[in-house]
Write a structure and sequence with these properties.
single chain, alpha/beta, TIM Barrel, Recoverin, domain 1, Double Stranded RNA Binding Domain, 8-stranded parallel barrel, 3-stranded antiparallel β-sheet, 17 helices, 21% strand, binds acetyl coenzyme *A, binds 3-methyl-2-oxobutanoic acid, binds magnesium ion
């Protein structure tokens, strides 16, 4: 199987992402992880950019042994001198030098004629070759360059000593068909092309970086360049983890191998995200939080029966521990039962059905059902027939008059079956209710947070109260709803207390079983 080289530029093009700035220690940390990931070449920075970048490239070049380390330079002698200063410590120093070849860039940016650009290219590569055994030359904005001119300058670059030729789609303008065709064209029209490796470098402005990279590979690219998580200038570079996993998963189609250790992907992605401060979007291919998450019942059922029904790559392949069946309003009984089982609940089918109905009702009101929510639902069901009991609100009443402390009278049935009534004042109606409940509940209650909102629209909307409290040191969130705000608040308070009570009763039950 043909093998291609992976050139990582997370520390150079990736660091060109707006708002990203890595110090030497951070760059070194990422470089070590890239080495574990198995990249063939890593571009550690742009040594002429700043003393800090020169220092970082130097540290990386002297530390990394299993990947080749390179640095970028313009076609300017002083840039190459800076790069040599940083890279001479490497086992096999490698330079990456570039100049733009498109009419737009040559005319407006470089203000050089095509002939001058060819001459600068030749002179620069020859100068660099005095120091560096390996010189990679890039034709910036190659895709928007005149093809015949590109073929001519590539031929000259190889003659001058470049052993890797990079053909970037600098502004992410190419389509896969066109980018692939450009590689084919160069293979067929540059007489000495076999003396150098041909490299692809794709940006993602139109979201086609992965497709373009794969098209280049199919048309003879020997190396591909990209970054972890696809970070980079503007919309970023091609995401190396996506290309790596695509080549591996579809090796039946591409027939291409790499030296990448794919199960280092997750760790590498997380490290880069953490140190650059660039979050990975949840639905990003391969490394997104949702890449192995299944939310809907039909998918969850399929995955439980046979993961390959909905997973074309295993979580383990990229170093992820497992897939994730997220319970929400689209989930079905199979996933619900599976989670209940993994939490230690063995319910008969009737109890499971009842618990599932409660779960669906709650799922309509909450985005995500937590394990704590499930615990409460399942425990309620499991304890239904046993001797356990909780606090039940019988009535709540409030006496309120402007400029006076309100009084609340609360009547509750205790777990022991006694009816207890308390009347207490408070700074407000809700506080008066909580004070009365505090007197009734046996144990120490401390309210941490409380809020009410309406469910639905209109004057007759239901009120939902959510309360976070500690009860005998345990803390939990309780919630309940009612037509009236005050009743919802009292019920939410008891809901939290009862959940904690049920948890300890359930633990007791599980211990004795
Ligand atoms: C497609 C890419 O990703 S290319 C890499 C982009 N990365 C970076 O630019 C990061 C590092 N850059 C820097 O720190 C600075 O831009 C430096 C140190 C390189 C240069 O800084 P300055 O000397 O202040 O120049 P400035 O950045 O403003 O302008 C760039 C100059 O380089 C010239 N230039 C641009 N590319 C090249 C090239 N490949 N070869 C030679 N000259 C070039 C421009 O024409 C311009 O020249 P001018 O001053 O004669 O008009
Ligand atoms: C410097 C070159 C290789 C580059 O990053 C680009 O053209 O996108
Ligand atoms: Mg680039």
């Amino acid at each position: 199987m043909r093998k291609i080289d992976i050139f990582d530029t997370t520390l150079r093009d990736g660091e060109q992402s707006a708002g990203v700035n890595l110090n030497t220690a951070e760059k070194l940390e990422i470089a070590k992880q890239l080495e574990k990931f198995g990249v063939d070449v890593m571009e550690a920075g742009f040594p002429a950019a700043s003393p800090g970048d020169l220092d970082a490239v130097k540290k990386i070049a002297s530390t990394i042994k299993d990947s080749s380390v390179t640095g970028l330079a313009r076609s300017v002698k002083s840039d190459i001198d800076h790069a040599w200063e940083a890279l001479k410590v490497a086992e096999c120093p490698r330079l990456h030098v570039f100049i733009a070849t498109s009419p737009i860039h040559m005319t407006y940016k470089l203000k050089q004629t095509p002939e001058q650009v060819v001459q600068t290219t030749i002179d620069t590569i020859k100068y660099a070759k005095q120091f560096f055994p390996i010189v990679q030359w890039s034709a910036e904005d190659a895709f928007r360059s005149d093809r015949a001119f590109l073929a001519q300058i590539v031929e000259q670059a190889i003659k001058a000593g470049a052993s890797v030729i990079n053909i970037p789609d600098t502004v992410g303008y190419a389509t896969p068909q066109e980018y692939g065709a450009l590689f084919k064209y160069l293979k067929e029209n540059v007489p000495n092309i076999e003396e150098a490796k041909l490299s692809a470098h794709c940006h993602n402005d139109l979201g086609m970086a992965v497709a373009n990279t794969l098209a280049a590979i199919q048309n003879g690219a020997d190396q591909i360049e990209g970054t972890i998580n696809g970070i980079g200038e503007r919309a970023g570079n091609v995401a190396l983890e996506e290309v790596g996993v695509a080549l591996y998963t579809r090796k039946d189609f591409y027939q291409i191998g790499t030296n990448l250790t794919l199960n280092e992907i997750k760790r590498t992605s997380q490290l880069v995200s953490k140190l650059t401060g660039m979050a990975v979007q949840a639905n990003k291919a391969v490394v997104g939080k949702n890449a192995f998450a299944h939310e809907s019942g039909i998918h969850q059922d399929g995955v439980l029966k046979e993961p390959t029904t909905y997973e074309i790559i295993t979580p383990e392949l990229i170093g992820e521990t497992s897939n994730n069946l997220v319970l929400g309003k689209h989930s079905g009984r199979h996933a619900f039962q599976d989670r209940a089982k993994s939490m230690g609940f063995e319910l008969d089918s009737e109890s499971l059905n009842q618990a599932f109905i409660q779960f669906k009702k709650l799922a309509d009101r909450k985005k995500e059902i937590t394990d704590e929510d499930l615990w409460t639902i399942l425990t309620n069901e499991q304890l239904k027939d046993s001797e356990t009991a909780v606090y039940e609100l019988e009535t709540v009443g409030v006496q309120y008059k402007s400029a006076q402390d309100p009084f609340a009278t609360v009547r509750v049935k205790t777990p022991a079956g006694k009816i207890v009534e308390e009347t207490t004042s408070g700074a407000g109606s809700v506080e008066a209710i909580f004070n009365a409940l505090e007197k009734i509940v046996e144990g120490k209650v401390h309210v941490l947070d409380y809020r009410v909102s309406s469910i639905g629209k209109g004057r007759d909307a239901l009120a939902e109260a959510v309360i976070n409290l500690t009860f005998n040191e345990d803390d939990l969130v309780g919630r309940d709803s009612a037509q009236d705000v005050l009743e919802a608040s009292a019920k939410a308070y008891l809901n939290a207390v009862n959940r904690i009570l049920l948890q300890s009763q359930m633990k007791q039950l599980l211990i004795t079983v």
